[in-house]
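User: Show me an example of a complex going from sequences to structure tokens.

Assistant: Sure. Here are the input components:
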Amino acid sequence: PKHQSTLTSFFKKA
Amino acid sequence: NALIKQAGLLKKIIDAIKDLIDEATLDCDNDGIYLQAMDSSHVSLVTFYLKKNLFEKYSCNRNLSLGINMTSIAKILKCGMSDDTLLLETNNPIDILSFKFESRRGHKLSQFQLRLMNLEMERLSIPDTEYSCIIEMMCSEFSKVCHDLATIGDSMTITCTKKNVTFDTTGDLGTGIVSLKQGVVGSENDENVYAASIKIVKPVSLSFSLRYLIYFTKASSLSNKVILHMGEEVPLMVEYKIFNTYEEEAGYLRYFLAPKVNE
């Protein structure tokens, strides 16, 4: 089974 | 102060994002208007850039950040006709955005004012990414693939190789797979037989939620092609280019979607 990742783990706060 | 020749274009752009995000800021400077916002679950992010040349007239003599409720701006844009010209203006103090629609023959003028919001938006920095695969295909084709596979499963795996791109899903009722070959099939003048243009460094296979991909296909009316950018372990970027009435490239609408990963 796969789980949905979130964007905050790829893109950091500017 | 921005004059757009066809109000319908701005309406299409807002309609393509309003179901994904509730609020956003329009960041305006002398080169154009930029928006970035994440959906409430932080799974997808939308950005658009409307370059100065999208507008018949454009001026912005200092940097502005306009807090907008997406449902509200969509309601106002719905009041205009798609081929009306639309003048957007802010005043000082900057607490409203005014919309002046003028019909093509000049017989009808309407004006609406949108109350702006004070938003503390969290801005993410999107790193410059060298994507392994860049796939260009017809918007209508991408939309059909997503809608078809969503009738079978919840997520879709996109696999890109040098020869083709495949989209597949699995659900309770069974499976579905669609494959598009690299290149143009048949006459080059007939875009209806265009399959997919693939630029590839390395094959990639990633899974994504179809619910989000279907949201993104609302942008299909902006352009006839969509560009999918994929890389190992990076979010998918789905890009629709925006053109002005002279068919010059005048910005983009980009959606980023976090992949589904193994537990």
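The lines above are the inputs; the final block is the predicted structure for all two components together. Chain A is about 0% helix and 35% strand.
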